[in-house]
Amino acid sequence: MDEVIAKRQQQVLHDKKWIKFMRRTWLFRYIPFVEFALAAGSLATGNMNLDSDFDVIVGARSGRIFTARFFSAVGFGFFGWRRTKLNHKESATDKVCLNHFVTEKSYRLSPPHNAYWKNLYQNLVPIFGESEKVNKFFAANQDWLGGRVYVDDLRHIHRSGSWVKKLREWLLGGKFGDWLERKLKIIQVARIERSFGTEAGYKPRIIYNDNELEFHPDTKRIEDAQL
Question: Alpha-carbon distance 166 to 112, whole Å?
Fold first, then answer.
């Protein structure tokens, strides 16, 4: 009986977390150069607790990854929805964790492809973007993930960007956008190196280049999940 109650309580928590998160996913429709977004972490696998945040994998347009990250951080930060610390020492309950940005060249997850990552990628939930882009992402990981083709999900309620997003992409699509991308890269790389030089923990998985931005400063919980 206790097991049934515990399972029901977990399902209720799962539903409440998803409802709160879905009320925030509309913002991706306004962020330039974001091509898709996937719910990840405990939100996707269903292993959340009261303190869980909302992990997201963001697909960005090639050549604009630092611009996409900048506008994502500003947008979610403006509403107080963004998680600002990744060291697990500060409460991040119900905050959106923008810890992984990929472009088409980095759709395929870098090794190791252990049981944790396989379970996570099999349960990723599209929340923004065209299905074609999402399936291109999954196709890039077929060699280790196995067959997964995204068809549909009720939580995938935002498929296309707003006119504001398209206007921003047009304004930042030329030489000025190239200049801004370079400037944002310089600023963000300096902050990343300064931050993770002091906050990195157990076997950090930190990647920052023109094709991918990944910030998992402490992978102890990832290893523990495989035990």
Answer: 37
> Hey, which residues does 82 pair with through a beta bridge?
96
* Chain centre to alpha carbon of residue 183: 23
Q: Residue 179's CB: how many other CB atoms inside 10 A? A: 11
Continuous segment of H or E residues that includes residue 58: strand 54-60
The pLDDT, as a whole number, for residue 165 is 98
Tell me the pLDDT tens digit for each residue of 45-65.
988 888 889 999 999 999 999
Q: Where are the domains of the chain?
A: 2-224
- The set of residues, in sequence order, having a beta carbon less than 8 Å from that of 167 and lying 6+ positions away, is none
How many CB atoms within 10 Å of residue 61? 16
Average pLDDT for consecutive 10-residue bins of the chain (227 residues)? 66 86 97 97 88 94 98 97 71 90 96 89 95 95 89 92 97 97 97 74 81 81 50
Whole-number Cα distances in Å, 63 to 33, 99, 126, 176: 9, 18, 23, 13
Which DSSP state fits 81? Answer: -
3-state secondary structure of 48: coil
